[in-house]
Write a structure and sequence with these properties.
Radius of gyration: 23 Å
CATH topology of the largest domain: Rossmann fold
Strand order of the largest sheet: 14-12-15-17-26-25-24-21-22-27
CATH superfamily of the largest domain: P-loop containing nucleotide triphosphate hydrolases
Strand content: 25-35%
Number of helices: 14
Distance between the termini: 33 Å
Number of strands: 27
Number of domains: 2
């Protein structure tokens, strides 16, 4: 039997979205990391932007734990594999504490906390309320007594008297300690835009943020918070198996490592660490390239991976980088395997329409995309591969997520699609995965730990190209 280990851990949850849990999480992480403590961060759900901020604050790559995509066992395994053994592990929840995929709260923050046996700190926005806050916390405790609701942090407190009354009402009604009270200083620290928070790479006020977060941390009882985290019970040691690592045919170390270009800059930064690690662990050499700062892509590459991000925000700079765009189109003509997600799909289009202007892109796909005023796809996606393509066998079931304001404006001459969307929106007509030659472009984001077939397909396509063979579009079903 594997020996238990004791990662100190806690979940920061809220009664709803925009409760203040992100600011509280960043303040705790920044205070500890700046003092030299080891802190690792995790984000419940598929969110890239919150994870980027958690990575910035903790100074370690934040990991996403999504039980809908990964399942509870894989999410717990991922936590155990990446948890700090000598410091704090903080998991930021999403939405409200009990909000999940159905009326029973399946896949909620509460269910993840129970799976990890992690104590929960509940952030409560107490603006314009006093004793009602006690009723809300009491309701959470009674709704699920199996949940270890261990502390409360008040947000948007208006003065010492307000804090005193709310604190007394919560502690008297529930017996749960209040371990922090943050004034309205935490309300508007991070600005929003159309896909959520501004990313760290695009936030012009980031140099002033540590000072603001320290003011938030001063309102928290850090000693009590760390004591609560340290009381988490032991967990069984994780298996050495990694569900995100590929089992790829022809992955012998004796073979030359395929070179995979990864576009990574302010426009394209939606990458799960596990995806890049799975490619590297499978023997690939990763070459990072900027769509704005760098010139043409190197010609001696065996595959290209383009994640999501904000190409529309940086469309003018990307469009002016003709050497890069031409080299991307040339790579597609040479049948270099290209895997693109969301923002990557937009880059491969003929143009992006944004803010009343149209910006030429790579023109690999015979489509144009336009940014709309409301989201065109938002939530989890389940799709099944129905057509031949370079990356997945037919009948493969893929689970991922989408969040895009862009839509494909072209109505005729669109390329074929590989997948039928069983849940979600996709590109159009309940289909996703545009395929053209060795190109795959979809609105669905894939997590390697939830879909090990993804890294296997990427590596196989890259190796076939490296050996002078065209990527197979006739992969057999598994």
């Amino acid at each position: 039997m594997s020996a238990p280990h004791y990662p100190s851990r806690l979940v920061i949850a809220g009664l709803a979205g925009d409760s203040g849990k992100s600011i509280v999480s960043l303040a705790i992480l920044r205070r500890l990391s700046s003092s030299g403590s080891s802190v690792h961060a995790f984000k419940k759900g598929p969110d890239y932007i919150d994870s980027a901020w958690l990575s910035w604050a903790s100074q370690h790559p934040a990991r996403n734990l999504d039980t809908w995509m990964m399942g509870f066992d894989r999410a717990a395994l991922s936590f155990q594999r990446h948890a700090a053994t000598d410091g704090l592990n903080l998991i930021e929840g999403n939405r409200g504490l009990f909000d999940g995929s159905d009326a029973s709260g399946t896949h909620s923050t509460a269910e993840l906390a129970k799976a990890l046996q992690a104590p929960v700190l509940l952030v409560v926005n107490v603006a314009k309320m006093t004793r009602t806050a006690g009723a809300l916390v009491l309701g959470c405790r009674r709704l699920d007594p199996a949940l270890n609701l261990a502390g409360v942090i008040l947000n948007r407190v208006h003065g010492s008297r307000h804090e005193s009354v709310v604190r007394a009402s919560i502690e008297a009604a529930t017996g749960i300690p209040v371990v922090g009270a943050v004034p309205s200083i935490g309300a508007d620290i991070l600005p929003d835009r159309h896909l959520g928070l501004v990313t760290p790479s695009d936030y012009t006020g980031i140099d002033c943020l540590p000072e603001v977060l320290e003011k938030v941390a001063e309102k928290l009882d850090m000693d009590q918070i760390l004591s609560i985290a340290a009381q988490a019970p032991p967990l069984s040691s994780p298996s050495t198996a990694d569900p995100g690592l590929p089992s790829c045919p022809g992955s012998s170390k004796a073979q030359p490592a395929p070179r995979i270009v990864v576009l990574r800059d302010a426009a394209f930064n939606f990458y799960y660490p596990e995806n890049l690690e799975a490619l590297a662990s499978g023997g690939a050499e990763l070459v990072f390239h900027s769509s704005m700062e760098d010139g043409p892509l190197p010609e001696d590459v065996d595959a290209i991976y383009i994640g999501g991000g904000f190409p529309e925000v940086h469309a003018a700079r990307i469009s002016s980088n003709a050497g890069f765009l031409n080299s991307l189109a040339a790579a597609a003509t040479r049948n270099v395997p290209i895997y693109a997600e969301c923002g990557g799909l937009m880059l491969l289009a003929r143009s992006i329409e944004w803010g009343g202007k149209q910006y030429p892109m790579a023109g690999v796909l015979p489509v144009d995309v336009a940014l709309e005023d409301t989201h065109q796809g938002h939530g989890y996606v389940e799709m099944i591969v129905t057509e031949s393509n370079p990356f997945f066998p037919r009948d493969t079931v893929l689970r991922g997520h989408e969040f895009h304001y862009s839509s494909i404006a072209t109505r005729t001459g669109r390329p074929s699609t590989a997948c039928a969307v069983r849940r979600g929106t996709g590109a159009f007509d309940k289909r996703d995965g545009l395929i053209l030659g060795s190109v795959w472009a979809s609105y669905t984001h894939i997590h390697a730990s939830a879909n090990p077939q993804w890294a296997e397909g990427m590596l196989l396509a890259a190796r076939l190209h490296a050996s002078g063979q065209a990527p197979s579009t006739q992969r057999s079903s598994q």
